[in-house]
């Protein structure tokens, strides 16, 4: 990497950076007690970005002999040169203090030290437990996933950092069947931790499987959610999706710079109730996806995007920070060495409040408890449609009839003004399955929140 | 070439030493240059400048015709995918490296994975070596040697020509992709296959605006050879966007015959049909063609062939991604079902022969070594007829013409063939001529029924990725707004 930077300097650039990577992604999938899919993808390579005159250029290679690395630098240089002639914009970087730091991730039962058999057994144990829970369980899918390795970063300003990302997860999906009614439900657990986490009582493969099975069976007698406006009680997982999908993306610096985010120009404005604080950070206290540095070598700072309802900051790369004359936050991320970093979230969540969940629930006379999410849509203005996995009617502070087809619609900026209770049970989750997609790049993220109580939410009935 | 083969052989031997009954190693290197250019001056016509804030806005003015916003990426993806078989169970592992040590580690992973999987009763064996039927596809050195700057100029020119064509073009975007790749497949039964290819793709999207009305039109071209002059294609695309201005709503739901332009028909056909003729889907009871071999399943106008040996074909090669020779496979002959597409697994499962249809390609132009092979057509060709698009329109007389890309064709039900897509550029046909453009409308039907209701076939074959289709008139289509 030093040689690559030296080569770039020789060519004459104003800035150069190199990211090197050696990571491994594993997935095991078992369906009804049989191991169906196992995949192992090892990703090794480097990405080089150089800035020359007005342009910037990016190139990558996974052939790592000296000749190929030099060629990669030269390609990036040529791209920067070509780009400089054609570009309408000049890309500059906000200043950061050069750092040198190595972060190691040490944990007991790191996935690389655990045998494939033990991981496979986690899946098989889940299948077994789910099928034993009820005769109505027709199909069980269990997935184990892991991602870990090393990432190195160096730039021409003298920054040199390395870290060891880690993410594991176990997920169980149950399908229940009774007559012609088919329902499904899932539970999962994971984060930047070792496999010991699956020995904790509430996170054993059996516990997760029993939850998924129980919820799928319960949904067999669920009724479609009624349409109309209700007070909503929102569980931590759904809160996380609201924080990430509908709000977080609006705070991404690249959308703010081009003016397409409704949060542009609204710093210091009151956008939510005083109880609402939304944070994005790299090393959260609870479980999530731990990130020490971003892919521009900038330390991952804790960003309170919204504090007590007031918009404080945006999420930035060095480029967007420069454009808005703000400080970089460590939010520039690339899917892997073959992509240029762009502004991405890390762990995005509603910060804990004072309310005990049972007390917040007790005050709801007639409402809906919406749990988790089965996907949805958002647009660039904050308008969302989310399908909760399941739900319950709430009558006089008590959970009643189980519901299915629970769809919530609205605009996040309106919703934040209607949050009237934030509970004290913050939960974060991160999963190696999927992740967040933006401009053809995927990134692992953490998200979560405590239970939220929101007044006057529009439920759409069957969605 | 010899390096790749030697490394592959060594890796396969290691797999056997570790206890694999059989092993296969797929190695490739792919160089690609990817350019996207958003045209400059034309953005000011659309008022986009006003939306830009801060630094960008200051630098963005004055807009200069030859400038815009370039996005470029270029790099080399090399890697290895290993399949190891232990007691009829397969393990797959991949690595983005050709370094011997890393490749051997990947072989170890593949063997480990095979050992935790249950045996697959349908597994027979890896392919045996066979002599290729063709000399392979085109490798155009010009594409392989093309510089980033040349490609950026091509991409920018597309935007400039598009914007110059008509003042009503307010937004221009073009993408140019140049790929050169070499790949080889080695297995322990003696397969040693090597091939090379180049690919040149251009995609463009132009937006025309008049008053408050905006119409987008897109076009794509794919070729194994460099395309010298793109200007006619650019102008055609710009013309398509302009032609779409002045749209009127479809007053009432229309059910009946529709003319699909070649691109639209290819979009729909390629999203659904390959799934129906995949032998694996037939075996798993996920195809309407199961049990229909030799029967009349489509109109007599319909002849469909998959030809991996087609000279100049986008997906032509000596062998497929399991090292089996690519071939010409008749699928429908005048509407009679003649054959399905097989990879090694589905073929051996029913004692048939692979049709050389195994592919590791997923998204177009993406790295292949990280994927396991699955059944995919090579150059899937819907045989052309006699008529020009003009003649098809006049033959129809009254009805609807659908042009360009469709939105939502990839969400079609590939098992039943049901589709419901949005056509952004559709036209009303009256008195044998194009009368006026229609507001975006929903076009719905069932592809397998459509193949039974083909009235007439055009002579204007065109590639959409690796699928070649002409324009057609198809009956029993529902169009609504």
Short recap of the structure:
The complex is a heterodimer of chains A (463) and B (481). Chain A is α+β, with helices and mostly antiparallel strands and 463 residues long.
Task: Report on this structure.
By secondary structure, chain A is of the alpha+beta class. Chain A has helices at about 1-10, 65-85, 115-135, 205-220, 235-245, 255, 320-325, 355-360, 410-415, and strands at about 15-30, 35-50, 55-60, 100, 135-155, 160-165, 165-180, 180-190, 225, 225-235, 280, 305, 310, 330-335, 340-345, 345-350, 365-370, 375-380, 385-390, 390-395, 400-405, 405-410, 420, 425-430, 435-440, 440-445, 445-450, 450-460. Chain A folds into two domains: about 1-220, PmbA/TldD fold; about 225-460, no CATH class. Chain A has nine helices and 28 strands. In chain A, helix 1 (about 1-10) crosses helix 2 and helix 3 runs parallel beside helix 4 (about 205-220). The longest helix of chain A has 21 residues, at about 65-85. Chain A is globular. In chain B, helix 1 (about 1-15) runs parallel beside helix 5 (about 100-115) and helix 7 runs parallel beside helix 8 (about 230-245). Chain B is built from 13 helices and 21 strands. Chain B has helices at about 1-15, 40-45, 50, 55-60, 100-115, 140-145, 150-165, 230-245, 260-275, 280-285, 345-350, 390-395, 445-450; strands at about 20-40, 70-85, 90-95, 170-185, 190-210, 215-225, 255-260, 305, 330-335, 335, 360, 375, 380, 400-405, 420-430, 435-440, 440-445, 455, 460-465, 465-470, 470-480. Chain B folds into two domains: about 1-245, PmbA/TldD fold (2-Layer Sandwich); about 255-480, no CATH class. A six-stranded antiparallel sheet of chain B has the order 3-2-1-4-5-6. In chain B, strands 10-9-8-13-20-19 form a six-stranded mixed sheet, covered by helices on one side. In chain B, strands 7-14-15-17-21 form a five-stranded mixed beta barrel. Chain B is globular, with a radius of gyration of 24 Å. Helices cover about 25% and strands about 35% of the residues of chain B. The chains are: A alpha+beta (about 475), B alpha+beta (about 475). Strand 3 (about 55-60) of chain A pairs parallel with strand 2 of chain B, so a sheet runs across the interface.
């Amino acid at each position: 990497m030093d040689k690559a930077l030296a080569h770039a300097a020789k060519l004459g650039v104003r800035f150069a950076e190199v990211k090197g990577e050696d990571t491994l992604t594993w997935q095991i999938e078992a369906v009804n007690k049989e191991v169906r899919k196992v995949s192992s993808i090892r990703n090794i390579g480097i990405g080089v970005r150089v800035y020359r005159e007005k342009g910037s250029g990016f190139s990558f290679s996974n052939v790592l002999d000296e000749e190929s690395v030099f060629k990669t630098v030269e390609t990036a240089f040529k791209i920067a040169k070509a780009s400089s002639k054609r570009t309408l914009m000049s890309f500059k970087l906000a200043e950061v203090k050069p750092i040198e730091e190595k972060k190691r991730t040490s944990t007991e039962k790191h996935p690389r030290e655990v045998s494939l058999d033990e991981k496979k057994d986690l899946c098989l144990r889940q299948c077994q437990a789910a099928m034993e829970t009820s005769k109505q369980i027709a199909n069980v899918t269990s997935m184990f996933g892991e991602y870990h390795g090393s990432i190195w970063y160096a730039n021409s300003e003298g920054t040199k950092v390395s870290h060891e990302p880690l993410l594991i997860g176990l997920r169980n999906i149950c399908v229940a069947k009774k007559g012609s009614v088919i329902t499904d439900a899932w539970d999962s657990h994971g984060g930047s931790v070792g496999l010991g986490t699956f020995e904790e009582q509430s996170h054993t493969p059996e516990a997760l499987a029993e939850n998924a099975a129980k919820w799928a069976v319960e949904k067999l007698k669920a009724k479609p959610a009624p349409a109309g406006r209700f007070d909503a009680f929102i569980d931590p997982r759904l809160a996380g999706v609201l924080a990430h999908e509908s709000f977080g993306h609006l705070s991404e610096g690249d959308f703010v710079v081009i003016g397409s985010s409704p949060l542009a120009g609204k710093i210091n404005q009151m956008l939510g109730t005083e109880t609402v604080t939304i944070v994005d950070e790299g090393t959260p206290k609870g479980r999530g996806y731990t990130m020490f540095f971003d892919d521009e070598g900038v330390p991952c700072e804790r960003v309170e995007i919204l504090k007590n309802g007031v918009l404080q900051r945006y999420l930035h790369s060095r480029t967007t920070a420069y454009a808005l004359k703000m400080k970089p936050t460590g939010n520039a991320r690339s899917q892997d060495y073959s992509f240029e970093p762009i502004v991405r979230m890390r762990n995005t969540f509603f910060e804990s409040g004072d309310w005990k969940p049972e007390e917040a629930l007790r005050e709801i006379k007639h409402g809906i408890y919406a749990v988790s999410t089965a996907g949805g849509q958002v647009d660039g203005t904050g308008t969302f449609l989310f399908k909760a996995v399941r739900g319950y009617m709430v009558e006089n502070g008590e959970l009643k009839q189980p519901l299915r087809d629970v769809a919530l619609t609205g605009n996040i900026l309106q919703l934040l003004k209607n949050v009237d209770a934030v509970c004290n049970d913050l939960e974060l989750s991160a999963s190696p399955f999927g992740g967040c997609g933006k401009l053809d790049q995927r990134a692992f993220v953490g998200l979560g929140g405590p239970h939220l109580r929101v007044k006057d939410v529009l439920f759409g009935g069957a969605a | 070439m010899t390096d790749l083969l030697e490394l592959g052989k060594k890796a396969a031997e290691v797999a056997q030493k570790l206890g694999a009954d059989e092993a296969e190693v797929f190695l490739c290197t792919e160089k690609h240059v990817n350019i996207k250019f958003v045209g400059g001056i034309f953005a000011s016509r659309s008022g986009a400048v006003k939306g830009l804030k801060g630094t960008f806005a200051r630098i963005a003015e004055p807009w200069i015709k030859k400038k815009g916003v370039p996005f470029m990426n270029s790099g080399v993806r090399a890697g290895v995918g290993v399949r190891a078989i232990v007691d009829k169970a397969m393990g797959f592992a991949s690595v983005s490296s050709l370094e011997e040590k890393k490749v051997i580690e990947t072989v170890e992973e593949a063997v480990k994975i095979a050992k935790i999987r249950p045996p697959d009763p349908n597994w027979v064996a890896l392919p045996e070596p066979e002599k290729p039927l063709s000399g392979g596809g085109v490798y155009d050195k010009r594409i392989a040697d093309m510089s980033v700057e040349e490609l950026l100029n091509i991409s920018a020119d597309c935007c400039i020509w598009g914007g110059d064509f008509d003042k009503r073009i307010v937004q221009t975007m073009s993408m140019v992709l140049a790929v050169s790749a070499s790949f080889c497949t080695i297995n322990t039964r003696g397969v040693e296959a090597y091939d090379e290819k180049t690919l040149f793709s251009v995609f463009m999207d132009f937006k025309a605006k008049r008053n408050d009305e905006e119409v987008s039109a897109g076009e794509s071209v794919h070729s194994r050879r460099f395309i010298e002059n793109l200007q006619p294609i650019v102008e055609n695309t710009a013309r398509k966007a302009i032609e779409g201005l002045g749209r009127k709503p479809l007053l009432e739901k229309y059910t009946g015959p529709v003319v699909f332009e070649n691109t639209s028909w290819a979009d729909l056909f390629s999203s659904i049909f390959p799934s129906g003729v995949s032998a694996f889907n037939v075996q798993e009871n996920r195809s309407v063609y199961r049990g229909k071999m030799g029967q009349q399943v489509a109109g007599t106008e319909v002849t469909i062939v998959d030809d991996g040996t087609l000279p100049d074909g986008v997906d032509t090669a000596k062998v497929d991604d399991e090292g089996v020779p690519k071939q010409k496979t008749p699928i429908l002959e005048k509407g009679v079902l003649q054959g399905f597409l097989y990879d090694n697994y589905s073929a051996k499962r029913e004692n048939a022969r692979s049709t050389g249809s195994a592919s590791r390609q997923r998204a177009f132009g993406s790295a292949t070594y990280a994927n396991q092979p699955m059944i995919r057509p090579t150059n899937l060709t819907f045989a052309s007829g006699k008529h020009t698009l003009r003649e098809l329109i006049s033959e129809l007389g009254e009805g609807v013409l659908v042009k360009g890309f469709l939105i939502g064709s990839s969400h079609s039900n590939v098992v039943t063939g049901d589709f419901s897509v949005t056509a952004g550029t559709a036209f009303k046909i009256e008195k044998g001529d194009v009368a006026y453009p229609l507001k975006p409308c929903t076009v719905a039907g069932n592809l397998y029924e459509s193949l039974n209701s083909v009235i007439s076939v055009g002579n204007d074959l065109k590639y959409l990725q690796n699928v070649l289709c002409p324009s057609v008139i198809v009956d029993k289509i529902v169009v609504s707004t």
